[in-house]
Write a structure and sequence with these properties.
Length: 307
């Protein structure tokens, strides 16, 4: 985009009015007999699978469900049976239709994926499983098993504890059932019960964003041999040239770089911002600034692309 006769701040303010607020990642809290953990869902990578899974979560059909299969150092699996309080028999979860396979990520330890019927890639319904190991062999079976989320933080301690429970054969189709305090006959209190609820988690700030409160650009920069820093920039001029100033007092040293960091080339004075977040969305990409006054840390905007 030619930035002549336009102002950076003006573009940003227009963008703020047009993007939705309060965007957050989708997370689900899983409460089990052996403890709690949280799933982060891959909304973009597997949108249909996530939507299907959330339909079961928000309708309450996964509440009082059972981990009905556990294979040591392989998977734990649920989403097929429920056993409500006051009952003694497992019953089938009310199942919606099958969904289209969306395999595109490997079945590594800690990921959650959909179970399905052998020989039919598009047969997943309600059953989910968590990979306890790197099960890359599943990536080449039956069209690949769709990974649609992962267990966060220390949650795999709970998953591992379930996977290490003794197992019994309750029926031909339930021959790997994990049990708690088992003493010869299986009752409701011996089962690994599961409840799920949708939770909203604040998405961490983008590496490069416009701060609405201060009206400053806040950038995380990979400066090559000079290291990694976070710096705020004030808008010093908007016409005829957009000029921003790096605020030396705002500099924070960072330990490492990430893929979406801006980059600064000391030899050319070019500052490249791969994406600028405004109001929760990446609105502009490949913003190119040039260091035009090294003493006063002034940068001029050369070009940008709409996101």
């Amino acid at each position: 985009m030619n930035i002549e006769n336009c102002t950076l701040l003006g573009l940003i303010l227009i963008s703020l009015a047009s993007v939705p607020k309060g965007q957050a990642q989708t997370q689900v809290k899983v409460s089990t007999t052996l403890g709690e953990f949280t799933l982060e869902l891959f909304d973009t990578a597997a949108p249909g699978t996530v939507e299907n899974f959330l339909n079961y979560v928000t309708s309450g059909r996964f509440n009082e469900s059972v981990v009905h299969r556990s294979v040591p150092n392989f998977v734990i699996q649920g989403g097929q049976y429920v056993i409500p309080a006051g009952t003694t028999q497992l019953s089938q979860i009310a199942i919606d239709g099958t969904i289209t396979n969306e395999f595109n990520q490997s079945n590594l330890r800690g990921t959650v994926a959909m179970a399905k019927v052998a020989g039919d890639p598009d047969s997943a319904t309600s059953q989910w499983f968590i990979n306890v190991a790197d099960n890359v062999s599943l990536d080449s079976q039956n069209g690949g098993f769709t990974v649609f989320g992962r267990v966060l933080a220390e949650g795999m301690k709970v998953v591992d504890a379930i996977n290490q429970l003794p197992r019994v054969a309750l029926a031909a189709s339930l021959n790997e059932l994990p049990v708690v305090n088992f003493s010869g006959s299986v009752a409701r209190e011996n089962l690994v019960l599961v409840d799920m609820e949708l939770v909203a988690a604040e998405r961490p700030p983008a590496s490069n964003r416009f701060d609405e409160t201060t009206e400053q650009l806040v950038l995380k920069i990979d400066a090559g041999d000079s290291g990694f820093v976070q710096v705020a920039f004030s808008v010093e001029s908007q016409s005829p040239q957009v000029i921003v100033r790096a605020l030396a007092e705002s500099v924070t040293v960072l330990d490492e770089s990430e893929e979406d960091f801006a980059t600064f080339d000391e030899s050319t004075g070019q500052l490249l911002i791969p994406g600028l977040e405004i109001g929760g969305q990446i609105v502009y990409r490949n913003l190119l600034f040039l260091l035009t006054d090294a003493v006063n840390l002034l940068f001029s905007l050369e070009s940008l692309e709409e996101g």
